[in-house]
């Protein structure tokens, strides 16, 4: 039986070689990122990940470790995607748009797709205040909520490479837009009143529509905010009739072309 110290030396040697190989791999990931950016190639190719995992399993000498190796490489692929995103998107990706435009769903999809952290400004507000958005509106009114919203955005000034989803009325205060543009690209998820109505029917968690959920009310609010969204958005994505995956793909392509 091998001496324990001898076995540990073998492990140490393996670790050294692993670090050297992983450094080479991560450097290659950055080279791939630069190539994709230069030639405007898709940055996410799921078929490539599947092929990598298949190849890795074919290299195994000991089948008993196939599950562990697959878990390891899934983690390596996630790290690689995160590194690629840090290189391609060293800024925040800020999602704005009317309620029901899909900011939360799209933000979650982008977070998974790009392995970037995801933050919702409404979550910051509720955490800081200890109250739900509806409770803030009911107890203190919209003005108080807007002040809390600006404070939440101010708290994100040191963030980078993060997906930030904002409330529908964030554009009402020009200061919010300026703060978000300091370290981010603003993506406006454009949506029609009809689409909003279809998506939000039965949703009681929208304080601005709580007592008047009609197509006329939706159209009026959207019309009032339209120039504010247009002025704020660096990239405009029409979301009507599209699924979350399609919208996320358009956002990535738009950011790479920006």
Features:
single chain, alpha/beta, Chorismate Mutase Domain, subunit A, Rossmann fold
Tell me what the structure shows:
By secondary structure, the protein is α/β, with parallel strands linked by helices. The chain has helices at residues 4-39, 46-59, 66-88, 103-114, 121-129, 133-140, 142-154, 174-182, 193-200, 215-232, 244-257; strands spanning 92-96, 117-120, 162-165, 184-190, 235-238. The longest helix is centred in the first third of the chain and has 36 residues, at 4-39. The model has no long low-confidence stretch (mean pLDDT 92).
Compressed to H and E, one letter per element, the order equals: HHHEHEHHHEHEHHEH
Shape: elongated
Largest sheet: 5 strands, parallel
Structural class computed from helices and strand pairing: alpha/beta
Query: Radius of gyration, rounded?
Result: 23 Å
Reported CATH architecture of the largest domain? 3-Layer(aba) Sandwich
Q: What is the CATH topology of the largest domain? A: Rossmann fold
Mean pLDDT figure: 92
Total domain modules:
2
**CATH homologous superfamily placement of the largest domain:** P-loop containing nucleotide triphosphate hydrolases
Strand order in the sheet with the most strands: 2-3-1-4-5
Determine and state the CATH class of the largest domain: Alpha Beta
* Helical coverage, percent range: 55-70%
Uncertain parts: none
Write down how many β-strands occur, each being a DSSP E stretch of 2 or more residues: 5
Give the N-terminus to C-terminus distance in angstroms. 62 Å
Give the amount of beta strand, in percent: 5-15%
Task: List the total number of helices.
Answer: 11
């Amino acid at each position: 039986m091998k001496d324990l110290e001898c076995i540990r030396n073998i492990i140490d040697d393996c670790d050294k070689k692993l670090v050297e190989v992983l450094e080479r791999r991560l450097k290659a990931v950055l080279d791939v990122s630069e190539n994709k950016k230069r030639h405007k190639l898709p940055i996410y190719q799921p078929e490539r990940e599947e092929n990598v995992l298949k190849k890795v399993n074919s290299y195994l000498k000991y089948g008993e470790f196939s599950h562990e190796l697959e878990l390891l490489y899934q983690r390596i692929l996630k790290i690689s995607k995160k590194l690629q995103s840090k290189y391609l998107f060293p800024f925040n990706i800020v999602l704005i748009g009317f309620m029901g435009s899909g900011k939360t769903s799209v933000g979650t999809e982008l977070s998974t797709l790009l392995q970037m952290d995801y933050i919702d400004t409404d979550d910051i507000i509720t955490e800081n205040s200890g109250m739900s958005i509806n409770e803030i509106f009911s107890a203190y009114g919209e003005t108080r909520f807007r002040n809390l919203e600006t404070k939440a955005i101010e708290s994100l000034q040191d963030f980078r490479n993060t997906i930030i989803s904002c409330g529908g009325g964030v554009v009402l205060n020009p200061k919010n837009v300026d703060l978000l543009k300091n370290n981010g690209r603003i993506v406006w998820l454009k949506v029609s009143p009809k689409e909003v109505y279809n998506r939000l029917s039965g949703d009681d968690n929208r304080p601005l529509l709580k007592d008047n959920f009609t197509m006329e009310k939706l159209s009026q609010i959207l019309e009032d905010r339209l120039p504010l969204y247009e002025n704020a958005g660096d990239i405009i994505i029409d979301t009507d009739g599209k699924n979350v995956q399609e919208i996320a793909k358009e956002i990535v392509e738009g950011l790479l072309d920006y």
